[in-house]
Amino acid sequence: DTAVSQTPKYLVTQMGNDKSIKCEQNLGHDTMYWYKQDSKKFLKIMFSYNNKELIINETVPNRFSPKSPDKAHLNLHINSLELGDSAVYFCASSAWDTTTDTQYFGPGTRLTVL
Amino acid sequence: GIQVEQSPPDLILQEGANSTLRCNFSDSVNNLQWFHQNPWGQLINLFYIPSGTKQNGRLSATTVATERYSLLYISSSQTTDSGVYFCAVNRKTSGSRLTFGEGTQLTVNP
Fold first, then answer.
1. DSSP letter at B98?
2. Mutate which of A105, A109, A112 to disrupt the B interface (most B C-beta within 10 Å)?
């Protein structure tokens, strides 16, 4: 059973297009995250949702819009894609306010903008 | 924000060798995790270790929270240990975001 899953695994698209990445977790967690890994492998938080409420919104262009329909799902929609958006996007989840808030990561979505 | 520094940035070993990876962080933390990113890009949890020592097979980790560092030990390395090892930390006041170090690229040669 996959704990945190993402679709698609690979996404190749043209500049200017709009695309979405979906994430689902079956761990019963109430907090979910999006991280971006750039070409130098540096990982950085983008967003975090707790019980469908946005709690972290880093300095990310407003072309990126996360949506959480329920606490098991967190999707990422990107408008007007740019070359610099090419990266690997990881979804993660964790429990909230526990002594062990280990974050579990999905397999990643490699986005390539041409 | 909190700073996380990992060393060394690159490490090349022969199979069977032992190694120690270090993670320094600039402030007190509630969470510290070690991850292995394999050559296929998957991020695998190794340890949740905000303090103390843990062992899992050939891997072990120690965090000295008062001195703001953590060590990851890999013994009898295998080629499958190759990849990037990340340390990531979190403070509850930061809303549970993990701040990652830049990683250590480990290559284990047969």
1. P
2. A105
Strands A73-78 and A64-70: antiparallel
Amino acid at B28: S
Tokens of A108: 């990643």
Q: How far apart are CA B101 and CA B69, in angstroms?
A: 12
Query: In chain B, which residue's Cα lies nearest the Cα of A87?
Result: B41
Distance between CA atoms of residues B107 and B110, nearest Å: 10
- Tens-level pLDDT at each residue, chain B (110 residues): 889 999 999 999 999 999 999 999 999 888 899 999 999 999 999 999 999 999 999 999 999 999 999 999 999 999 999 999 999 998 866 667 899 999 999 999 99
Long-range contacts of A52-57 (CB under 8 A, 24+ apart): A55/A31, A55/B95, A55/B96, A56/B95, A56/B96, A56/B97
Of the residues A45, A48, A50, the best mutation for testing chain B's interface (the one with the most B CB atoms within 10 Å of its CB) is A45
